[in-house]
Amino acid sequence: MHSLRKIVEELGISLSLFSTQPLWQIAMILQATQAQQLGLRPEYGIDYQLLQAAKQTQKPVIELEGVASQIALLCQLPDNGLALLDDTLTHWHTNARQLQQMMSWWLKMPQQHGDITLPQNV
């Protein structure tokens, strides 16, 4: 509980917001908040980019693993997702360093200009 309190304070989130949340959801919120505070944005993610490209080219999208199925899996975690929360808290700073490393690799890549084009067989 001490490490949760410390990380929540670090993120500027009120601990009371988590009073009714399952443990897996607390872990997911912490992970997403950490990623956003480090500069990652959902609109730059591969899922969003591919969905936008498919939409622009009027390609149908067949969902393989949607939000509902992901939440159903998370709800089945033993102990309400305690292991996921424990892993998130235990590896908090390591995960931050790894995200920063990954971002530095992306930033070193030459920027590509132009629209995203999907292969014809997609």
TrEMBL record:
CDD domains, A to Z: Tiki
PANTHER family: CYTOPLASMIC PROTEIN, CYTOPLASMIC PROTEIN-RELATED
Protein name in the entry: GumN family protein
Organism phylogeny: Bacteria, Pseudomonadati, Pseudomonadota, Gammaproteobacteria, Enterobacterales
